[in-house]
Amino acid sequence: MSDDVKGTSTRQDEFSPDNEPVVSEFSPAGSGTDAGETEAAQSNRKQPLYRRPAFVVAAAVVLILAVVFGLRYWLYARSHESTDDAFISGHIVAVSPKASGYVAQVYVKENQEVKAGDLIAELDARDYEVKLDQARAALQAGTARLREARTGVDLTRATARANVQQASATVQQARSGVESQRAAAAAERARTTQAGAGVATAQANVAQARSQVASADAEAARAKADVERYQQLFQKDETSRQRLDQAIASERTAAAQLDAARQRVAAAEAQVNEARAGQLSAAETARRAQSQVGGAQAGVTEAFGRLAQANTAPQQVAVSQAQAETAGASLEQLQAAVKQAELDLSYTKIYAPETGRVTRKAIEPGALVQIGQPLMAIVSGEVWVIANFKESQIGNLRVGQSVELNVDAYPDKVFKGHVDSIQAGTGSAFSLIPAENATGNYVKVVQRVPVKLVFDEQPDPGHLLAPGMSVEPEVRIK
């Protein structure tokens, strides 16, 4: 309807130029003043709004409240720093197996509370048990080889010592044999010389015997001539029978002496032959003795060779010791293999590394898992707050300042804490792709610095605080 239509409504303009309420001259039926309305009310209605007492009182109250709250907010803002870019953080431990295999048993459920050291899963351990048995068998064989090597060292020492002693004795014996053979050869040469002297003596005896034969032969011829002459004289009775008998006896004596001389010659000649045979035998014996001296000297050389071989005992012992050390190193390697097999077997049992709540469970019985594969995560009960303050706020923050932590999940609960530490760098500096302000156009962006806020007391079980929950911290800086 048009504004110039009268009698439709009552219009009051509080801010008209003359500050007077304007009332239409015509009012609808029944819109007049009530009969019981007082004159004071009518008078107030005609006054401006700012002159009314109620308005003045209300405006004064509002002004006072605004001043009070404004002053309070100003004082609060001067002594506090806050941000809405804050979240709860905590230890999230990923559970991964150190061994591969099929899952035999799973002992936990999603969001279940576990304690550190609780058995949470188990893999099929039969393959690892077989490997452990093989490693133990190899260790036993290595132990036996080590004992054998150590026994070989002792045996080599004893054998080498005995060989040295035996070789030294053989050398001495060979040297003694050489001296003995040389002495025997010298004795045989002396016998040969003596035999030569005996031959000369025998030859001299033969010559003497032959001269005696000649003398005896001459005496026998004289005696025979005397016998013949005395026989003729006896026949003529010119001599006596006695004289003839004496001549005959002399002849016989001379003949006997001649035979004896001849026998002595034969004996002397036999002695010469015997002496010559003895000389030949002694010469042969001396030759054999001399050859035996050469053999004895060869024995000495051989004995020295055996002694030199026996003197290699330290090297033989060193070789045996090296073999024993090799066996010992192999034994240590086998022991390490047994420990590794035991560790691999122990890895088939998966224990909770931390006390907390199981989350993101991704393991079921019968599944094949690999080393390092994420199976689940355990969120510990220890939590803190990471608040990303603006770089313009960091200058007022100090370690140890008290903090009121308002968690969005619990609006009726205020948690107490304090500033634990301030990161040495902004969040963008440690991002996956840090900002490179030296390239392209530069636009200044207010950076944020992560600040770690720690609860003074860990929250009770009735107020679950989990990583990622939003928090609005208020740090008291003054």
Structure write-up:
53% of the residues lie in helices and 17% in strands. It has 478 residues and is an alpha+beta fold. The protein folds into 4 domains: 36 residues, no CATH class; 42 residues; 165 residues, Efflux pump adaptor protein, beta barrel domain (Elongation Factor Tu (Ef-tu), domain 3, Beta Barrel); 192 residues, Helix Hairpins, CATH 1.10.287.620. The chain is rod-shaped and about 245 Å long. It starts with 38 loop residues before the first helix and ends with a strand.
Give the arrangement of secondary structure elements.
Blueprint: H1 39-46, H2 53-79, E1 80-82, E2 86-95, E3 101-106, E4 113-114, E5 119-123, H3 126-235, H4 241-310, H5 313-346, E6 349-351, E7 356-359, E8 368-369, E9 376-390, H6 391-394, E10 402-407, E11 414-422, E12 448-455, E13 471-476
Antiparallel strand pairs: 1-13, 2-9, 3-5, 3-8, 4-7, 5-6, 7-9, 9-12, 10-11, 10-13, 11-12
Helix pairs in contact: 3-4, 3-5
Average pLDDT, all residues: 79
β-strand percent reads: 15-25%
Do you know the CATH architecture of the largest domain? Orthogonal Bundle
Helix/strand order, N-terminal first = HHEEEEEHHHEEEEHEEEE
Tell me the helix content: 40-55%
Specify Rg, calculated over alpha carbons: 72 Å
Summarize the main sheet. Answer: 9 strands, antiparallel
CATH level-four homologous superfamily name of the largest domain:
Helix Hairpins
- Number of E-type strands: 13
Instruction: Give the domain tally.
Output: 4
Q: Identify the overall geometry.
A: rod-shaped
Number of helices: 6
CATH class of the largest domain: Mainly Alpha
Catalogue the unreliable spans: 1-36
Q: Which secondary-structure class do the elements indicate? A: alpha+beta
End-to-end separation in angstroms reads: 63 Å
